[in-house]
Design goal:
This protein is α+β, with helices and mostly antiparallel strands and 373 residues long. 31% of the residues lie in helices and 24% in strands. It folds into two domains: 247 residues, Zn peptidases (Aminopeptidase), CATH 3.40.630.10; 119 residues, Alpha-Beta Plaits. The strands form five sheets. Strands 1-2-6-3-7-16 form a six-stranded mixed beta sheet, with helices on both faces. It has a four-stranded antiparallel beta sheet with strand order 11-13-9-14, with helices on one face. It has a three-stranded antiparallel beta sheet with strand order 4-5-17.
Length: 373
């Protein structure tokens, strides 16, 4: 059953930033068919929605299995076949999102018939979000709605690929788009224009200086690299060499170790951008994404539960980010634990194995056994 579900999940090309109605409705229908109460929670975009499903008594405290329905685009070269058709080759199941993270979704959905037969005393909730790949944009709306959806959960398991090993911590992230607007003109008369690219270089120099300061700053040996970091990922400006560019944009991001605010790390860059207004330039700052770091105590009840369910000791930390930090920020214990290897994600011929799916399904069913009446 889990492979069949994974097949139709992969066949829904729910690329980040696009409408997700078809996959959300298909999941909702499956959940309702197996006795779950389902709430579809539209986001402010109007064409995307989160989904929250409950199996068991909503008035009792239970556990959340959290995942995202969106995937990154599959337009890179190197795919051996259609990335949105599940392809089986031995133990491997290929397709966009198989590891990140429709494999986990498939396991949670495949578990519903057995969980429904367990007469759960404490509920299991499925919290499936949208646009996680754009910086966790969808899940904050669902987290805000949680008090009206269920009793305060005992914990949240975020099923990002971790080799089915609990992960206690991850870095936080903030990303922003910067824009500078100047005055165009012929390059022979720079005195009559305002060069937006030249102005942006000062802002980017500030960003590089901030990045170097982070490399020498506070560190946490659990992470690789051990310090917070800053990257300039995209710069655009100008139309021709002999035209004074009147617009320049850049996109930057920071990755912050636990205990450090990602947004705060970008403030020196934002101040340098804002200062350009005194020289007659227009400026704009757009936050693209932001989520906090995760830091779960190794002695927590949730970490112990996941270790018992998987038979594997928890991993201290990973450097990639997830929605777990946002759940923790809302006051809920959260941990990462899902099937597959993050190294396979966001690349051609992404795959998950049947063995990994079987182990994840067994973990979810073991959780159900602990929650049954």
């Amino acid at each position: 059953m889990v492979e069949d579900i994974l097949g139709w999940l992969v066949a829904c090309p729910s690329v980040v930033g696009t409408p997700n109605g078809p996959i959300t409705q298909r999941i909702a229908d499956h959940c309702r068919a197996h006795g779950a109460t389902v709430r579809i929670l539209p986001g402010p975009e109007g064409d995307r929605a989160n989904l929250f499903a409950t199996l068991g008594p909503a008035e009792a405290p239970g556990y959340v299995l959290s995942g995202h329905t969106d995937v990154v685009p599959a337009d890179e070269s190197g795919w051996s076949a259609d990335p949105f058709v599940l392809r089986r080759d031995g133990d491997r199941l290929y397709g966009r999102g198989t590891t990140d993270m429709k494999g986990f979704l498939a396991c949670a959905l495949a578990a519903l018939p057995a969980l429904a037969a367990m007469d759960l005393k404490w509920p299991i909730h499925l919290a499936f979000s949208y646009d996680e790949e754009a910086g966790c944009r969808g899940v904050p709306h669902m987290i805000a709605a949680l008090p009206g959806l269920c009793r305060r959960p005992l914990g949240v398991v975020v099923g990002e690929p971790s080799g089915l090993q609990g992960v206690l911590a991850h870095k936080g992230k903030a990303a922003a788009r910067l824009e500078v607007t100047g005055v165009s003109g012929h390059s022979s008369r720079p005195d009559l224009g305002r060069n937006a690219v030249h102005a942006m270089t000062g802002v980017l120099a500030e960003a590089l200086a901030q990045g170097r300061a982070l490399e020498a700053g506070p560190s946490d040996a659990r992470f690789e690299p051990a310090t917070s970091s800053l990257q300039i990922g995209l710069v655009k400006g100008g139309r021709a060499l002999n035209v004074i560019p009147d617009h320049c944009s850049a996109e930057i991001e920071v990755r912050a170790i636990s205990g450090v605010s990602p947004r705060a790390l970008l403030e020196p860059v934002r101040r340098r951008l804002d200062a350009l207004a005194a020289d007659g330039f227009g400026t704009a700052w757009q936050e693209l994404s932001a989520y906090p770091a995760l830091a779960l105590d190794a002695d927590s009840a949730l970490a112990g539960l996941v270790a018992d369910l998987t038979g594997r000791a928890s991993r201290p930390a990973v450097s990639y980010g997830t929605e777990a930090g946002l759940f923790q920020e809302a006051g809920l214990e959260a941990i990462i634990c899902g099937p597959g290897d993050i190294a396979r994600a966001h690349r051609p011929d992404e795959y998950i194995t049947r063995g990994e799916l079987d182990a994840c399904l067994a973990m979810i069913l073991s959780l159900g056994e602990r929650l049954r009446a």
